[in-house]
Amino acid sequence: MMVDKEQEKQMAAKEAVKLVKPNQVVGLGTGSTAMYVVHEIGKLVQAGLQIRAIPTSDRTAALATSLDITLVDINTVEAIDITIDGADEFTPDLSLLKGGGGALLKEKIVASLTREEIIITDSSKQVAQLGKFPLPVEVIPFASNYVLRQLALQGGTGQIRMVDSQPFITDEGNYIIDTNFGLIADPAALSNTINQVNGVVAHGLFIKLASKVIMGVGDSTVTFSGK
Ligand code: A5P
Q1: How many angstroms separate the CA atoms of 103 and 143, rounded?
Q2: What residue's CA is closest to ligand 1, atom 9?
Q3: Is 62 helix (H, G, I), strand (E, B) or coil?
Q4: Contact of 62 with 42, CB cutoff 8 Å
Q5: Tens of pLDDT along 54-67?
Q6: Cα separation, 131 vs 90, whole angstroms
Q7: Phi-psi region of 187 (alpha: psi -120 to 50; beta: other; left: phi over 0)
Q8: Packed helices 58-66 and 32-46: angle between N→C axes, nearest 10 degrees
Protein backbone atom coordinates (compact mmCIF):
# COMPACT_ATOMS: atom_id res chain seq x y z
CA MET A 1 0.00 0.00 0.00
CA MET A 2 1.28 3.49 -0.86
CA VAL A 3 1.84 5.58 2.27
CA ASP A 4 0.45 9.09 1.93
CA LYS A 5 3.16 11.09 3.69
CA GLU A 6 1.28 14.37 3.40
CA GLN A 7 -1.76 12.85 5.12
CA GLU A 8 0.47 11.50 7.91
CA LYS A 9 2.14 14.91 8.40
CA GLN A 10 -1.27 16.56 8.57
CA MET A 11 -2.63 14.01 11.06
CA ALA A 12 0.40 14.55 13.33
CA ALA A 13 0.05 18.34 13.03
CA LYS A 14 -3.64 18.29 13.97
CA GLU A 15 -2.93 16.07 16.99
CA ALA A 16 -0.05 18.30 18.17
CA VAL A 17 -2.02 21.52 17.87
CA LYS A 18 -4.53 20.15 20.41
CA LEU A 19 -1.78 20.64 23.01
CA VAL A 20 -1.62 24.42 22.48
CA LYS A 21 -3.45 26.41 25.17
CA PRO A 22 -4.66 30.03 25.16
CA ASN A 23 -2.12 32.73 26.02
CA GLN A 24 0.88 30.46 25.56
CA VAL A 25 4.17 31.39 23.93
CA VAL A 26 4.43 28.91 21.05
CA GLY A 27 7.55 27.99 19.07
CA LEU A 28 6.88 27.36 15.38
CA GLY A 29 9.14 24.88 13.60
CA THR A 30 10.39 24.84 10.03
CA GLY A 31 9.88 22.37 7.20
CA SER A 32 7.07 20.78 5.25
CA THR A 33 5.58 19.07 8.34
CA ALA A 34 5.78 22.10 10.62
CA MET A 35 4.06 24.18 7.93
CA TYR A 36 0.87 22.19 8.55
CA VAL A 37 1.05 23.29 12.19
CA VAL A 38 1.39 26.94 11.24
CA HIS A 39 -1.70 26.62 9.04
CA GLU A 40 -3.67 24.86 11.84
CA ILE A 41 -2.65 27.53 14.36
CA GLY A 42 -3.60 30.19 11.82
CA LYS A 43 -7.13 28.71 11.70
CA LEU A 44 -7.35 28.71 15.51
CA VAL A 45 -6.17 32.34 15.65
CA GLN A 46 -8.84 33.26 13.09
CA ALA A 47 -11.33 31.58 15.43
CA GLY A 48 -10.14 33.69 18.38
CA LEU A 49 -7.20 31.82 19.99
CA GLN A 50 -4.71 34.24 21.51
CA ILE A 51 -1.08 33.13 21.51
CA ARG A 52 2.30 34.72 20.87
CA ALA A 53 4.58 32.81 18.53
CA ILE A 54 8.32 32.53 17.95
CA PRO A 55 9.30 31.33 14.47
CA THR A 56 12.42 29.24 13.83
CA SER A 57 13.13 30.65 10.36
CA ASP A 58 12.40 33.56 8.05
CA ARG A 59 10.15 31.21 5.99
CA THR A 60 8.04 30.31 9.00
CA ALA A 61 7.90 33.93 10.12
CA ALA A 62 6.58 34.99 6.72
CA LEU A 63 3.89 32.29 6.70
CA ALA A 64 2.84 33.02 10.29
CA THR A 65 2.59 36.74 9.57
CA SER A 66 0.48 36.07 6.47
CA LEU A 67 -1.93 34.11 8.71
CA ASP A 68 -2.16 36.93 11.28
CA ILE A 69 -0.31 34.98 13.98
CA THR A 70 1.27 37.42 16.45
CA LEU A 71 5.06 37.05 16.61
CA VAL A 72 7.20 37.96 19.59
CA ASP A 73 10.96 38.52 19.94
CA ILE A 74 12.57 35.50 21.63
CA ASN A 75 14.70 37.83 23.75
CA THR A 76 11.61 39.20 25.45
CA VAL A 77 10.46 35.85 26.89
CA GLU A 78 11.92 33.78 29.74
CA ALA A 79 10.70 30.51 28.28
CA ILE A 80 8.60 29.08 25.49
CA ASP A 81 5.62 27.02 26.66
CA ILE A 82 5.38 24.66 23.72
CA THR A 83 7.11 24.23 20.37
CA ILE A 84 5.95 22.04 17.51
CA ASP A 85 8.61 21.15 14.96
CA GLY A 86 9.53 18.40 12.50
CA ALA A 87 12.57 16.11 12.25
CA ASP A 88 14.47 14.20 9.60
CA GLU A 89 14.93 11.12 11.82
CA PHE A 90 14.00 10.15 15.38
CA THR A 91 14.59 7.14 17.59
CA PRO A 92 11.93 5.88 20.03
CA ASP A 93 14.05 7.21 22.94
CA LEU A 94 13.54 10.70 21.42
CA SER A 95 16.96 11.48 19.99
CA LEU A 96 16.52 13.53 16.84
CA LEU A 97 18.38 14.34 13.67
CA LYS A 98 17.24 17.67 12.25
CA GLY A 99 18.30 20.41 9.88
CA GLY A 100 17.40 19.04 6.46
CA GLY A 101 15.59 22.32 5.91
CA GLY A 102 18.58 24.36 7.05
CA ALA A 103 16.95 25.99 10.09
CA LEU A 104 18.69 23.92 12.77
CA LEU A 105 20.35 26.81 14.60
CA LYS A 106 17.18 28.66 15.56
CA GLU A 107 15.33 25.36 15.97
CA LYS A 108 17.89 24.26 18.57
CA ILE A 109 17.83 27.57 20.44
CA VAL A 110 14.03 27.56 20.48
CA ALA A 111 13.98 23.91 21.62
CA SER A 112 16.45 24.72 24.41
CA LEU A 113 14.11 27.42 25.76
CA THR A 114 10.99 25.27 25.40
CA ARG A 115 9.17 23.48 28.21
CA GLU A 116 7.33 21.05 25.93
CA GLU A 117 9.05 20.27 22.63
CA ILE A 118 6.67 18.31 20.41
CA ILE A 119 8.10 16.71 17.28
CA ILE A 120 5.74 15.69 14.50
CA THR A 121 6.63 13.36 11.64
CA ASP A 122 5.31 10.99 9.03
CA SER A 123 6.01 7.28 9.48
CA SER A 124 9.19 7.32 7.37
CA LYS A 125 11.17 9.23 10.03
CA GLN A 126 11.32 6.57 12.74
CA VAL A 127 14.69 4.75 12.84
CA ALA A 128 16.45 2.37 15.23
CA GLN A 129 19.70 4.38 14.93
CA LEU A 130 20.24 7.92 13.63
CA GLY A 131 22.58 8.59 10.71
CA LYS A 132 21.16 7.35 7.44
CA PHE A 133 20.14 10.98 6.79
CA PRO A 134 23.35 13.08 6.51
CA LEU A 135 23.94 15.16 9.63
CA PRO A 136 23.76 18.93 8.93
CA VAL A 137 26.54 20.92 10.60
CA GLU A 138 26.18 24.72 10.41
CA VAL A 139 29.51 26.56 10.15
CA ILE A 140 30.67 30.09 9.66
CA PRO A 141 31.90 30.30 6.04
CA PHE A 142 35.43 31.36 7.14
CA ALA A 143 35.86 28.01 8.94
CA SER A 144 34.24 25.70 6.39
CA ASN A 145 37.32 23.90 5.04
CA TYR A 146 38.84 23.58 8.51
CA VAL A 147 35.60 22.09 9.85
CA LEU A 148 35.34 19.71 6.87
CA ARG A 149 38.81 18.35 7.74
CA GLN A 150 38.00 18.10 11.46
CA LEU A 151 34.78 16.20 10.71
CA ALA A 152 36.76 13.83 8.45
CA LEU A 153 39.14 13.11 11.36
CA GLN A 154 36.05 12.07 13.34
CA GLY A 155 34.91 9.72 10.56
CA GLY A 156 32.44 12.08 8.88
CA THR A 157 32.44 12.62 5.12
CA GLY A 158 31.06 16.11 4.60
CA GLN A 159 29.96 18.23 1.69
CA ILE A 160 29.00 21.87 1.72
CA ARG A 161 25.29 22.07 0.86
CA MET A 162 24.85 23.68 -2.55
CA VAL A 163 21.89 25.31 -4.27
CA ASP A 164 22.19 26.21 -7.97
CA SER A 165 25.99 25.66 -7.80
CA GLN A 166 26.32 28.13 -4.90
CA PRO A 167 26.67 27.34 -1.20
CA PHE A 168 23.30 27.30 0.58
CA ILE A 169 23.22 30.25 3.00
CA THR A 170 21.31 29.91 6.25
CA ASP A 171 19.13 32.67 7.73
CA GLU A 172 22.14 33.64 9.86
CA GLY A 173 24.52 33.83 6.88
CA ASN A 174 26.31 30.52 7.49
CA TYR A 175 27.05 27.39 5.42
CA ILE A 176 25.83 23.86 6.10
CA ILE A 177 28.07 20.82 5.82
CA ASP A 178 25.95 17.69 5.27
CA THR A 179 28.01 14.97 6.90
CA ASN A 180 27.77 11.21 6.60
CA PHE A 181 28.97 9.48 9.76
CA GLY A 182 27.24 6.20 8.95
CA LEU A 183 24.89 4.95 11.66
CA ILE A 184 25.58 6.87 14.87
CA ALA A 185 26.05 4.51 17.81
CA ASP A 186 26.37 7.23 20.46
CA PRO A 187 24.63 10.49 19.37
CA ALA A 188 25.40 12.29 22.65
CA ALA A 189 29.14 11.60 22.33
CA LEU A 190 29.20 12.69 18.68
CA SER A 191 27.24 15.82 19.60
CA ASN A 192 29.86 16.77 22.20
CA THR A 193 32.73 16.09 19.81
CA ILE A 194 31.29 18.26 17.02
CA ASN A 195 30.42 21.05 19.45
CA GLN A 196 34.11 21.36 20.31
CA VAL A 197 35.21 22.14 16.74
CA ASN A 198 35.90 25.87 16.33
CA GLY A 199 33.73 27.41 13.64
CA VAL A 200 30.78 25.06 14.21
CA VAL A 201 27.68 27.06 15.10
CA ALA A 202 25.27 24.16 15.57
CA HIS A 203 24.60 20.63 14.37
CA GLY A 204 21.45 18.64 13.80
CA LEU A 205 21.68 16.15 16.67
CA PHE A 206 19.00 17.10 19.20
CA ILE A 207 19.61 15.10 22.38
CA LYS A 208 17.29 15.30 25.38
CA LEU A 209 15.38 18.20 23.84
CA ALA A 210 12.18 16.48 22.67
CA SER A 211 9.34 15.77 25.12
CA LYS A 212 7.23 13.78 22.68
CA VAL A 213 7.17 12.62 19.08
CA ILE A 214 3.78 12.41 17.40
CA MET A 215 4.07 10.29 14.26
CA GLY A 216 1.34 10.07 11.66
CA VAL A 217 0.59 6.51 10.59
CA GLY A 218 -1.96 6.27 7.82
CA ASP A 219 -4.99 8.21 9.04
CA SER A 220 -4.06 8.07 12.75
CA THR A 221 -1.10 8.91 15.00
CA VAL A 222 1.27 7.16 17.41
CA THR A 223 2.88 9.10 20.28
CA PHE A 224 6.35 8.35 21.66
CA SER A 225 6.99 9.81 25.10
CA GLY A 226 10.47 8.44 25.73
CA LYS A 227 11.47 6.63 28.87
C1 A5P B 1 14.43 22.19 9.29
O2 A5P B 1 15.68 22.74 9.43
C3 A5P B 1 14.44 20.79 9.77
O4 A5P B 1 15.00 20.54 11.01
C5 A5P B 1 13.08 20.15 9.64
O6 A5P B 1 12.41 20.11 10.85
C7 A5P B 1 13.30 18.79 9.14
O8 A5P B 1 14.18 18.89 8.04
C9 A5P B 1 11.99 18.12 8.72
O10 A5P B 1 11.53 18.67 7.54
P11 A5P B 1 10.26 18.10 6.81
O12 A5P B 1 9.11 18.28 7.73
O13 A5P B 1 10.14 18.94 5.57
O14 A5P B 1 10.54 16.65 6.49
Answers
A1: 19
A2: 87
A3: helix
A4: no
A5: 999 999 999 999 99
A6: 10
A7: alpha
A8: 30
One-letter amino acid at 24 equals Q
Query: Rounded CA gap, 105 and 128, in Å?
Result: 25
Query: How far does the centroid of ligand 1 lie from the alpha carbon of residue 99, in Å?
Result: 6
Sign of CA dihedral 202, 101, 39, 71: positive
Taking each helix axis as running N to C, give the angle between helix 5-17 and helix 32-46, from 0 to 180 degrees, rounded to the nearest 10.
40
Give the chain's radius of gyration (CA, Å): 17
| pLDDT score for 3 | 74
Torsion angle (degrees, nearest 10) of CA 160, 120, 71, 175: 0
Rounded to whole angstroms, the Cα distance separating 148 from 143 reads: 9
Q: Is 107 a catalytic residue?
A: yes
Three-state secondary-structure class, residue 100: coil
Sign of the Cα torsion 227, 208, 118, 131 reads negative
Pocket residue to mutate for ligand 1, from 88, 95, 126, most atoms within 8 A of Cβ: 88
Across the beta sheet with 96-97, the strand order is 89-90, 96-97, 205-206
What pairs with residue 163 in β-bridges?
166
| Partner residues linked to 139 by β-bridges | 175, 200
C-alpha 97 – ligand 1 centre gap (Å):
9
Once rounded to an integer, what is the mean pLDDT over residues 93-118?
98
34 by DSSP, 3-state: which?
A: helix
With 0.85 as the threshold, say if the pTM is over it.
yes
Residues in the chain: 227
